[in-house]
Amino acid sequence: MKLPHLVLPLVPILFFFFFLLFASPAAEAADALYQNCGKTGNYTTNSTYESNLQTLFTDLTKSSTNSTTNFGFAKSSVGSTPNLVSGLVLCRGDVNSSDCSSCLNHATQDIQNICPYDKEATIYYDYCLLRYSNQNFLSSTNNSNTHIMYNTQNVSVSFTLFDNRVDYLMNSTANYAAFNDSKKFGTSQMNSTDSFPVIMGLVQCTPDMSGTDCNSCLQNLINPMPKYFIGKQGGRVIGVRCNIRYEIYSFYSGAALLTVRAPAAPAPAPAPAQSLPPRVTNPPSEGKKKTSTGTILAITIPLVLIAFVVIAGLCVCFIKRRKSGLTKPLLNVGNPEEIKSVESLLLDLSVLRVATIDFAEQNKLGEGGFGAVYKGVLPDGREIAVKRLSQSSSQGMGELKNELLLVAKLQHKNLVRLLGVCLEGQEKLLVYEYVANKSLDQILFDSEKRHLLDWGKRYKIVCGIAKGLLYLHEDSQLRIIHRDLKASNILLDADMNPKISDFGLARLFGGDQTQEITNRVVGTFGYMAPEYAMRGHFSIKSDVFSYGVLVLEIITGKKNSGTFENDETEDLLSFVWQHWTNGTITVVADPSLGQRYSRSELLRCTQIALLCVQDNSANRPSMSTVAVMLGSETVSLETPSKPAFCIAKSSIRAGSFSSGFINIGGNTDRSSTKSVPMSPNEVSITDIEPR
Q: Are 407 and 494 part of one and the same domain?
């Protein structure tokens, strides 16, 4: 019987999809999966370290591809301290000599472009990895710089049963590689049974590890897998000393070294008996049978071929997007105009669970009024800080989304950037850029760390905070009044650049929470302007007052005495004002600075700070004026008058504060008998005034 004419036009289409299907992966073979640039220092062009590094690259590539015992693996050191450089390379166990050599050549070239002049770096490819460092790590089996990747697609069968099979397969493969293969390499396959797909696995350790050490390294990657890869079609964890991977398709060369039988599944419950309709036993006549068969074939064959074409097209799209199983990245919010709705910021909870290892305690950075903050690492290597907001917040979801959208559009180098949010079930998670040196107070007020802040860094921090506040007050689309500017809300990046945090989100935490640290909180003693603390009046000049107090803390290294531990405690403003009037202002400089500071800059910063803490808010400069005064020594400064001193402890009566308030788009006028609640806190409140 001839095929219907409908089938013939589909043949060229099939060939086209076959070409795309098998040609697409080749272009991705040399792409790096992940890289990490170290923080142990930099070398210079034509230095001894650079020469030693080039020698190391040559030695490692040659040794790994020529070795007969440990083919694909090499480690070595070149030079001596301080120009010692140690390195390690490892090719995947199923890769041939040519592909191994090609991958390592790519690695040595790419890493110098990606991490130029770094004394330490690591780069991973599908076929190989390379690590070098100015620290001798070769004697350690520590599986450093691990990186997690997973397939974005879920399996269509029971997650629990599938994950159990993956766990069984990977444990079996790890045991095989650690104790039965000299290269410490293993591939495996669990064949399809019932409705479950074939599962392929791969594990590898560096061959210099003992069987026990290899198995222990692999188990440290396999055991947390249920947290990382719940129901995922594939996943991998890569590290310098060992790595693992599984997929539901073949991704390694050759046949599996180990075939694993699927563990027995629990027997299904018997189906209830059903009454069946009577079966028709009369056969059709011969003529009708032939006609029916021809009709069925004419309809079925084209439909099958069309379905095949559609499936092939979907496979091509999947391969192009898969990129070795990477999950969806966070939104690139470098351009605020790209953020059209809060939905564009939304992230899957599963992504953040993997990034933080299910909010593990060892990843907790701190805890405040909003809840806990966790460090996380995304599959693309970006470090993030995840705020897990308290579930007692009373703010509505619609109101929350509107506020998040406003905050996400605030873009300035001196503001901590909001990268995304997760609003699933009871979870409210805010994802920020990770800032390496945490908060200013943890360094400035620490007797051992404060020496890290020399005068140059302190002056840079003073100027950076001013620029961030100026953006909030005057340069952003909306007028943002922080109302809780303090040392713990200033974060410092790896280069000690300041970033203002916790702005614009106070309403997330509600006014009816019962947690001690968040109940009725709008500000912090010692930083609050007198008109705000006594009468509830706030404006951009309230932030200017807080900024002045903060600058004096940075100069002196002393905390303001907002805690009022006793009635005799001299507050910071009194201390500085006394020396200003006595002409001994240099005495207030932090003793850890010694004499290593610019006297003119210190005097100028002190005078600006005293102008910012004037009792009358009208006498305080705006942040635009502050920025001008900091940026030019030729601008003359006014003489400050006596500043507003902190409220004495005895003047505050317990229980005299009213409930918190938020003023949006207007002025607040309160009598002197009412005040706002105050306590040490970790949040801020934003006043949004359209311009």
A: no
